[in-house]
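Researcher: We're reviewing a set of sequences before deciding which ones to prioritize for further study. For each one, I'd like a predicted 3D structure that I can look through quickly. This is Undecaprenyl-phosphate glucose phosphotransferase. If possible, include the structure in token form so it fits the rest of the review sheet.
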Amino acid sequence: MIKDNQRYFNRIHVVIDAAVICVSYFLAWVYKFVILRDPPGLGFVLYMVALAGIVPLYLMLYLAFNMYTAKRVQGRRLEIGNIVKANAFGLLIVMAVFFLLREYNGYAYEYSRTMLFYFCVVNIVMEILVRNLIRICLRKIRKSGFNLRHIIFVGYSSAAEAFIDRIYANPQWGYRVCGILDDNKETGYTYKNVPVLGTTEELEQILENNRLDEIAITLALREYYKLKRIVAICEKSGVHTKFVPDYNDIIPTRPYTEDLLGLPVVNIRHVPLTNTFNMVCKRTVDIVGAVVAIILFSPVMLVTAILVKTTSKGPLIYKQERVGLHNQTFQMYKFRSMEVQSEKSEKKAWTVRNDPRVTAVGKVIRRTSIDELPQLFNILKGDMSLVGPRPERPFFVEKFREEIPRYMIKHQVRPGLTGWAQVNGFRGDTSIKKRIEYDLYYIENWTMGLDFKILFLTFFKGFVNKNAY
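Model: Here's the predicted structure for Undecaprenyl-phosphate glucose phosphotransferase, in token form for your review sheet.
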């Protein structure tokens, strides 16, 4: 729910920013050519047409400069700095484009550089005012009990007290502390109305019975021997986990930690794809790539569809429930490669070598990964990505989350049609633990370049799979 609220808020924020850009541009034009009465050179319409390119350019720059990051812990000075940098960079790009287009199709276009400078100044001022107004509104909304992030602390320490102090001093962050788990404080003990709920042994039960948005591990320094067990429980829950060390006076707060007004918060795991700009870039590549792939492979898919329908009875497309982003289930599409079977018998069975359920056509399309091509439509729907960890069925997710440490972390990104584990040979009947190691490497080291590398490698060693039965 919190993540959905953040996405909805970001959409509204984009619309507001687009309106601010348009109004700032219009005001700059009025000031330059109406109030100062300078000769415009070009008509009003041509100046306004340029907004069709300026608005999307500036919105992309705002993404690139982290202007849509949640405002819970982002300071005003940092946000103002990002506004200035994004607008300065945008001004340079727009002026460069206008310079290159000063003579186009036999006509001379003389855009006013002064007017563009006025636009830059007005837009910076208006963005700062609007975003501060949004901060004020968010603060009032969160004080009223809406748009809150529910957090629980594991361990009572000076770090826990410092975090709680900062939360109470900054209600605009929108945190609600649900309680503390500690082995040395009595249940019911409170610190600034935050109760101790029980011991750390009860952590798993509490996570199962409560809907939390974050976990903060705030163990006292003498209790760090418990850290490994607690981190394993937290990561198995799939809830975003932070580690707030109880020795913040001797470690730096940058570059590998968050800085909460001097309190270092070390995130248990860094996921680059939680950055909005990275998510937008990856999603754009997914959509364009899926459309191109559907067009290129349409003859292959047509032939496969005919062969599947004419050689065995049953549906053309096989739909199977898989677990994806944020532990949400979805229906993953494949060309049917097996005889039709009951849902109960199919649900818990791995495919083995020489499996009698696989059809003659199925053996070929499974070995060459042609059966996976309908997942291109899953990508267009937003269930999957071109590159990411392969999704598993709910039954196996429940099994592996108990057996394999850190397994659930793979659901912090969209599952993929191909992935780092797959191009390194870990497909089909191979080690799940090794697969997770490669998936975690991908999640923590994601770049657009790594995605393109994986797609490139897929063409050479990802399609044909000796372990696909």
